[in-house]
Design goal:
By secondary structure, this protein is an alpha/beta fold. It is about 30% helix and about 30% strand. The chain folds into two domains: about 280 residues, Purple Acid Phosphatase, chain A, domain 2 (4-Layer Sandwich); about 190 residues, 5'-nucleotidase,  domain 2 (Alpha-Beta Complex), CATH 3.90.780. The longest helix has 18 residues.
């Protein structure tokens, strides 16, 4: 006789401080208050409900950065997630602060592969068994190797350097903690869709992993992607969408009989605003508004940054602001450091800070034309189009035409002249990229140091951006062929 039980799993990823609702197509959309209302309603309507967060709760909002994530933990506590895993931006405020934030969380945070290098001690509980409706669900947390890039200065911590080691760790946990009464095993990852696919291929079916709930690549999906028999899902980014599993589990036969997955839009069609959450957000917003709601500049029009993997209007604006009246030739501004899809025409201080929240120092170094060519070829390698690498916006004077099919540079110029191998160029990058020079730029830093000793040329990106915007009204920028990708 079958014993079919219902389980609903809701999941979010890459919320990035998306606390406040917006009007989209005439509908009030997203924000934590509406997300909270939807989750609360599902908990009332269904018997067995779990809510999972697959990393990157932090960054992107002035409310988050003003309180260094403490406000985010405070707000997410109200959502009452059953389990969360660490994303790469959870370490942005430093390791010690992350451990402090974990103590403030009223929900379990799991991660299987972040550890102290000195004695191999894990920083977090690697898994958790959750019992709901007479079912026992094993959750395992996996983090992207990008945490090494974010926390390079944290010499005492590390993570597995490749997906193969992460897969082995899942096997170890399953062998040791997946018992006969474990009904489902779910990996909660923050490694991006491409790495999730690779991970699924490496999973031994005997380990019994039923689902991968992912994050990091901000992937919107219409249906699960099944690799090696394991469905992979992800719910885009922000709070205007939530993933939902409705699962029928046969307790007697110890197997999933059926499941349905969908991404549910969070808007006024299916939820209202949770008044408790709205009040809590209002308290934080009143403080930040008083400090950050002042006009910095007025742009000529709204400027856009639709994709990291292409030249954009905002990318050109920011690269040019950094390069103007500087001591270097070319600014390579990290595409991922620009967080808004559009900015302006009116730019408030809050908008400016939220657009470039990773304020850091800038380094200048000198390369030969041959080294710069190697850097560009590394940046534009095939992995770039999968969202798995760092990408850059270039200041004025650069002309790069790259053909993907032949992996070749058809034009490579600066100020209208071909960049020759013996040419010398002074390049500037943000600290995050300098600290991961070899990995991100593909040329050994020690080799580059032989040309000239690198030095810090600015202590704050946002200091330069604010001053430039404040003294230049009506700024405009266009996509003008600085970076052209063919095929």
């Amino acid at each position: 006789m079958s014993d079919v039980r219902k389980l609903t799993i809701l999941h979010s990823n890459d919320m990035h401080g998306d606390f406040l609702p917006q009007m989209v197509d005439g509908k009030r959309t997203g924000g934590l208050a509406m997300l909270s209302d939807y989750i609360n309603n599902v908990r009332k309507e269904e018997d067995n409900v779990l809510y999972v967060i697959a990393g990157d709760m932090f960054r992107g909002s002035i409310i988050d950065s003003e309180y260094m994530g403490l406000s985010t933990i405070d707000l997410v506590n109200l959502l009452q997630p059953d389990v969360a895993t660490i994303g790469n931006h959870e370490v942005d405020y430093g390791l010690a602060h992350l451990l402090f934030l974990e103590k403030c969380a009223k929900f379990p945070i799991i991660n299987a592969d972040l550890f102290v290098t000195l004695n191999n001690t894990r920083l977090f509980q690697p898994y958790i068994n959750i019992k709901v409706g007479g079912m026992k669900i094993l959750f395992i947390g996996i983090l992207t190797q990008e945490v090494l890039a974010t926390a390079r200065k944290e010499k005492v911590i590390g993570t597995f350097v490749d997906i193969e080691e992460a897969a082995k760790e899942i096997g170890i946990i399953c062998d040791n903690y997946r018992t006969t009464d474990t009904d489902m095993t779910i990996v909660v990852s923050h490694i991006g869709i491409e790495q999730d696919r690779r991970l699924a291929e490496l999973l031994n079916p005997e380990w019994g992993v039923d689902f991968i709930i992912g994050g990091h690549s901000h992937t919107f999906m219409d249906e699960p992607e099944v690799i090696n028999g394991v469905p992979i899902v992800q719910a885009g980014t922000g709070t205007d969408i939530i993933g939902r599993f409705d699962i029928d589990f046969d307790k007697e036969e110890q197997q999933i009989k059926d499941y349905k997955w969908q991404c549910v839009p969070i808007n006024s069609d299916n939820c209202t605003a949770d008044p408790v959450m709205a009040e809590m957000i209002g308290r934080y917003q009143s403080v930040t508004d008083a400090k950050y709601k002042r006009v910095v500049t007025r742009l000529a029009r709204t400027l856009t940054h639709p994709s990291r993997e292409q030249e954009t209007e905002l990318g050109n604006l920011y690269a040019d602001m950094m390069q103007d009246e500087s001591s270097f030739d070319i600014m390579m501004f990290g595409s991922g450091a620009i967080r808004k899809k559009e900015l302006g025409p009116l730019v408030e201080y809050q908008d400016m800070m939220e657009n470039t929240p990773f304020d850091d120092v800038c380094w200048m170094f000198e390369v030969t034309g041959e080294q710069f060519r190697r850097i560009i070829m590394h940046v534009l390698r095939d992995d770039a189009w999968l969202g798995e690498t760092e990408f850059y916006q270039y200041s004025k004077g650069v002309r790069i035409v790259y053909r993907k099919s032949t992996h070749s540079l058809e034009e490579f110029k600066f100020n209208g002249k071909d960049i020759t191998d013996d040419m010398r160029l002074k390049i500037c990058v943000q600290n995050y990229h300098y600290q991961n020079f070899d990995e991100f730029l593909g040329v050994p830093l020690e080799e580059v140091k032989q040309n000239r000793k690198p030095r810090v040329v600015a202590t704050s990106v946002n200091n330069i951006v604010e001053e430039y915007m404040a003294t230049h009204q009506g700024l405009d920028a266009h996509v003008e062929g600085r970076l052209v990708i063919l095929d």
